[in-house]
């Protein structure tokens, strides 16, 4: 669909080129002044240049000091506006442009019918660094003014206005067609993104990484289409208002008004797209690392958790880096001198490091937690008096969800001793109380049978990694004989295995008439 849209854009461009008249150069956006005279300057004696405009187009440039340039441009343009009104709106007006020398400086005089107006005096600043003399510069300005006034008069003719109106109508029609196609693409991408978002819940890591990669790529396409839509409307508006001499000045105003906001917006959007593309690259690299043809099952299980954690942390770091780069680039494109800013980053870094020692300790400890694979998202851990499922980890904090549903946030600098209950494999540790009166050999045989049956069960055998170990009588307690059983399981499956084993053991004991021991006490009474 993107290729079709590009083809339509090419067709639209060719159509415009066919319809445009020979003087289609009017559609080109006019150049702005070389010097931003609307920006404040500290050096009022600096020499600057600015354009003298007619109908929004630059006729010629004049030069002056920074403190005088605005006033000189205003005076010349007021005279030019008066001349153009006389010449444009008188049907039989005649135009004569002459050069007269006063005090060794050429003066340009424009005569419309019988009314003569001095347009400007050419100074030495106007020819500085241009490699021409005053006479040559005067002749150039005469030709430029003559051409500009004749062009302006021709553009105001009815035939020209009708022709430009037809061109504007065609451009607007193409705009509506292209906008309709872009909106259709945006709608399709929205539908696809919603479908991907629904499928991302509780997916295997390989599927999740692939979906995440597709999501980020589609997000980039979605934002580019939004930018294209805005660009189409803005570009068409600028071109249409630039067609007519009456509205062309609005083109300059719009460009001047939107220059800085547009640059900041483009940098911001570019930063966002780079972040999304980086997310897609991280997902792609993670997918390449996760190869089930190479890795064994246990390592696969652990790698899933590590990839989730590393992916989350990597995306956080990438986001911070790109945002910082985006801020620096944005300041640079709007004209801010970033050299002192970059020089002050070192000093600022020292100050921040002194004020953020706890944050630095958190980040360093978080880095080693991830590198050493102490735990990852999806593990169940115990840190001090807190335990639960790791829901989120970054360079600063670890967040746990305990059995009561509470979200516990622990700074990484506080993670000194951690117990991981689900790293690589887990173990179901069972203590089975048996009455002292029971035949211990019969009980052990029955426990062996139950363990063997459960190991062979298709539902449970994939979660049991090794043959259960019957350790024997582990203790004599007030409840009776304690038989210890170890069952090696997949991570986080030890509790399910324990519950099922106890259920089966209770059924087997009832079938054989063997009671499970209850807490008991014996009381001896003696004659007092």
TrEMBL record:
A Pfam family matched in the record: MS_channel_3rd
What topology does the record note for this protein and the membrane? Multi-pass membrane protein
Domain Mechanosensitive ion channel MscS C-terminal, residue spans: 429-514
Spell out the subcellular localization from the entry.
Cell membrane
- The entry's keywords: Cell membrane, Membrane, Transmembrane, Transmembrane helix
Mention one GO molecular function.
mechanosensitive monoatomic ion channel activity
Q: What are the record's GO terms for cellular component?
A: plasma membrane
Which residue numbers delimit the Mechanosensitive ion channel MscS domain? Answer: 358-426
Q: Keyword Cytoplasm: yes or no?
A: no
Entry's transmembrane regions: 166-186, 224-246, 252-275, 312-335, 341-360
Superkingdom of this entry's organism? Bacteria
What's the chief localization of this chain? membrane
Q: Which InterPro entries match?
A: LSM_dom_sf (IPR010920), MS_channel_1st (IPR049142), MS_channel_C (IPR049278), MscS_beta-dom_sf (IPR023408), MscS_channel_2nd (IPR006685), MscS_channel_C_sf (IPR011066), MscS_channel_TM-2 (IPR011014), YbiO_bact (IPR045276)
Residue ranges constituting the Mechanosensitive ion channel transmembrane helices 2/3 domain according to the UniProt record: 317-357
Q: Which family does it belong to?
A: Belongs to the MscS (TC 1.A.23) family.
**Under what name is this protein listed?**
MscS Mechanosensitive ion channel
